[in-house]
């Protein structure tokens, strides 16, 4: 008879370092751990279904629900409290839009008088024809002819940077691009990171000295592109429709291409190690990579990634 | 009866050396896979499944949107090499569709779908290895994937298979045992003890049902401990990774500090 021996299950990193105890003593050990956790200075972590506090003394916020006068967590994350309001912020989740946020998105659909935009949120965002800048002056009525040639402004698949303007009753967000900073994106590539890693900064438009511009969308979409000079960006008479809605990339020289892909790979590595992105850390990371004379592809290797993140985060502590 | 395998021998051991109520080794991997919002790989002994969760996101099919809550879409794929006998199952296979709808109905009362009107949550289940208890592995992996995607759940859903050999209940059956004895899969929400799924495909004596059901509910709580520890470890690791990053000047650092203030112990009150 044929016998079959199975391979032992691979030791995953998740189970690494955790001691298994007999069920009878496990509770005691777990209790000790909980106690340590509570007395520690770190933030309190929850799992779905965990009891947080009594609902009589506190108000429930996002990430919680009330049952039998108990506030219970519904997501895995950290507990936050503002006065009497208790919320749980999920560690990994989709983007939660707020008015005024800068987002990068991709057109998914052209509909009457509006575009649908994928912005990594729970529903597609809406960009109304009335909230984009059209050629021939900012203050001008939108005509029927504009509605007919909407695809000349934005087509399916186009990338754009916009600001969250308002919300609809069902929670979908409405965007606007009524500023010279916003509009169609070209001359670069997009990287996606978990939205929690992009914190609110003074400016989300970053120019790195290596000739690369970054747009850190709060929705976790990051646009890495060739540097454009300030005055070029605005055009001669303030608004150049040809340039703003152009689908043609400028000439990008080899050095800039390398710099763009290097920055993109740095962002990928940082995101994989769950490091929040800011202008300074990106700059430091770029310098580190150049110092080590790493090739663009080598940045993505596991071992260099770990070294690299250790160098960035370890040096400060 | 020489060719038949002894399910439970005189010493109280099963064919793979386990005791009656002993569960197989569980391993959980929550590291993220590709572009999924949440993913989990769970194995119960030799049974292994990978679940990826996408969403809540815009529904691909307009007609599938529900105006007041999210739509849950479950797709199951059984790898041809997963069972002892190589066999390809199509997408439209009735058994797989039923399997998917079982998972869907298990999670519908648990996911807080009303928070995401007109959205869709996609759950993709891949069965990589089958050795009994496939449904329980799928349900446990789905729970973990949903939790790691940050989708609000009322509680974990922990599933376990129970069977009965003559009069003695067994837990976490292998294929060998599933082929021979009546079995039932139970999914519990451990905090309240509510049961979201009881299913069986074999006939079971009504007098035996209560025993198995009760033991399976208990076992669900044991599995819950493992799952909770895994989620907590993952959350802790991610929070630590975010905290370890240098706090540099700028609004980002301010936001970070503000968080710390808000994290004051609630229990102190």
TrEMBL record, chain A:
Q: Which Pfam families match?
A: ECR1_N, KH_6, S1_RRP4
- What is the species of this protein? Heliocybe sulcata
Q: Which GO terms describe its molecular function?
A: RNA binding
A single Gene Ontology CC annotation of this entry is: nuclear exosome (RNase complex)
Q: Which residues form a coiled coil?
A: none
Alphabetized UniProt keyword annotations: Exosome, Nucleus, RNA-binding, rRNA processing
Q: Note down the stretches annotated as region Disordered.
A: 1-23
Q: Which GO terms describe its biological process?
A: CUT catabolic process; exonucleolytic trimming to generate mature 3'-end of 5.8S rRNA from tricistronic rRNA transcript (SSU-rRNA, 5.8S rRNA, LSU-rRNA); nuclear mRNA surveillance; nuclear polyadenylation-dependent rRNA catabolic process; poly(A)-dependent snoRNA 3'-end processing; TRAMP-dependent tRNA surveillance pathway; U4 snRNA 3'-end processing
- The main place the protein resides is nucleus
Identification of the protein by name: S1 motif domain-containing protein
Note the PANTHER family from the entry: EXOSOME COMPLEX COMPONENT RRP4, PNAS-3 RELATED
- Keyword Protease part of the UniProt annotation: no
Domain S1 motif span(s) in chain numbering: 98-178
- InterPro entries (UniProt xref): Exosome_cplx_N_dom (IPR025721), Exosome_RNA_bind1/RRP40/RRP4 (IPR026699), KH_dom_type_1 (IPR004088), KH_dom_type_1_sf (IPR036612), NA-bd_OB-fold (IPR012340), S1_domain (IPR003029), S1_RRP4 (IPR048565)
> Where does it live in the cell?
Nucleus
Q: Which family does it belong to?
A: Belongs to the RRP4 family.
From TrEMBL, chain B:
Exoribonuclease phosphorolytic domain boundaries = 22-152, 155-218
- One Pfam family hit: RNase_PH
Q: Does the record's keyword annotation contain Cytoplasm?
A: yes
Q: Name one GO biological process term.
A: rRNA catabolic process
- GO MF: RNA binding
Localization of this protein = Cytoplasm; Nucleus, Nucleolus
List keywords of the entry alphabetically: Cytoplasm, Exosome
Please give the InterPro entries that the UniProt record associates with this protein: ExoRNase_PH_dom1, ExoRNase_PH_dom2, ExoRNase_PH_dom2_sf, PNPase/RNase_PH_dom_sf, Ribosomal_Su5_D2-typ_SF, RNase_PH
The primary site where this protein sits is: cytoplasm
Q: Which GO terms describe its cellular component?
A: cytoplasmic exosome (RNase complex); nuclear exosome (RNase complex); nucleolus
Q: Which domain of life is it from?
A: Eukaryota
Q: How does it assemble?
A: Component of the RNA exosome complex. Specifically part of the catalytically inactive RNA exosome core complex (Exo-9) which may associate with the catalytic subunits RRP6 and DIS3 in cytoplasmic- and nuclear-specific RNA exosome complex forms. Exo-9 is formed by a hexameric base ring of RNase PH domain-containing subunits and a cap ring consisting of CSL4, RRP4 and RRP40.
What is stated as this protein's family in its record? Belongs to the RNase PH family.
Query: This protein is called what?
Result: Ribosomal RNA-processing protein 41
The organism is Heliocybe sulcata
């Amino acid at each position: 008879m044929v016998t079959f021996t199975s391979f032992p299950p691979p030791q995953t990193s998740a189970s690494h370092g955790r001691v298994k105890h007999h069920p009878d003593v496990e509770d005691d050990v777990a209790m000790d751990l909980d106690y340590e956790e509570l007395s520690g200075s770190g933030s309190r972590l929850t799992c779905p279904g965990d009891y947080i506090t009594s609902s009589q003394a506190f108000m429930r916020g996002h990430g919680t629900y009330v049952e039998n006068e108990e506030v219970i967590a519904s997501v895995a994350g950290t507990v936050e409290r503002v006065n009497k309001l208790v919320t749980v912020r999920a560690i990994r989740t989709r983007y939660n839009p707020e008015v005024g946020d800068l987002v990068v998105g991709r057109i998914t659909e052209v509909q009457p008088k509006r575009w649908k935009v994928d912005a990594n949120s729970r529903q597609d965002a809406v960009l109304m024809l009335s909230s984009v800048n059209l050629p021939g002056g900012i203050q001008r009525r939108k005509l029927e002819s504009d509605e007919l040639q909407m695809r000349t402004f934005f087509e399916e698949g186009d990338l754009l940077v916009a600001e969250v303007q308002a919300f609809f009753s069902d929670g979908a967000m409405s965007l606007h691009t009524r500023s010279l900073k916003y509009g169609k994106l070209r001359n670069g590539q997009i990287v996606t990171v978990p939205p929690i890693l992009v914190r609110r900064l003074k400016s989300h438009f970053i120019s790195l000295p290596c000739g690369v511009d970054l747009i850190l969308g709060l929705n976790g979409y990051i646009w890495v592109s060739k540097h454009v000079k300030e005055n070029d960006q605005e055009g001669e008479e303030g608004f150049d429709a040809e340039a703003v809605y152009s689908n043609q990339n400028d000439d990008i020289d080899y050095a800039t291409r390398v710099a763009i892909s290097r920055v993109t790979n740095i962002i990928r590595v940082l995101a994989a190690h769950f490091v929040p992105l800011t202008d300074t850390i990106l700059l430091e990371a770029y310098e580190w990579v150049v110092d080590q004379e790493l090739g663009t592809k080598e940045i993505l290797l596991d071992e260099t990634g770990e070294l690299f993140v250790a160098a960035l985060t370890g040096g400060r502590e | 009866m020489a060719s038949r395998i002894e399910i439970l021998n005189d010493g109280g051991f099963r064919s793979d050396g386990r005791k009656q109520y002993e569960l197989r080794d569980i391993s959980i991997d929550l590291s993220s896979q590709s572009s999924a919002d949440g993913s989990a790989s769970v194995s119960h002994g030799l049974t292994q499944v990978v679940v990826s969760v996408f969403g809540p996101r815009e529904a691909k099919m307009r007609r599938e949107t529900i105006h007041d809550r999210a739509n849950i879409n479950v797709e199951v794929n059984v790898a041809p090499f997963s069972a002892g006998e190589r066999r390809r199952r199509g997408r439209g296979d009735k058994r797989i569709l039923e399997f998917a709808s079982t998972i869907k109905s298990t999670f519908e009362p648990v996911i807080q779908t009303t928070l995401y009107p007109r959205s869709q949550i996609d759950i993709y289940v891949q069965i990589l290895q089958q050795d009994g208890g496939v449904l329980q592995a799928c349900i446990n992996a789905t729970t973990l994937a949903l939790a790691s995607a940050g989708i609000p759940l009322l509680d974990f859903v922990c599933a376990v298979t129970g069977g009965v050999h003559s009069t003695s209940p067994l837990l976490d059956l292998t294929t060998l045992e599933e082929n021979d004895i009546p079995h039932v899969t139970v999914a519990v929400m451990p905090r309240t003890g509510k049961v979201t799924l009881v299913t069986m495909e074999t006939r079971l004596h009504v007098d035996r049902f209560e025993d198995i059901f009760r033991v399976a509910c208990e076992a669900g709580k044991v599995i819950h401990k493992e799952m909770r520890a895994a989620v907590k470890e993952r959350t802790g690791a991610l929070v630590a990774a975010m905290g370890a990053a240098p706090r540099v000047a700028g609004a980002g650092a301010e936001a970070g500090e503000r968080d710390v203030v808000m994290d004051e112990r609630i229990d102190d009150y």
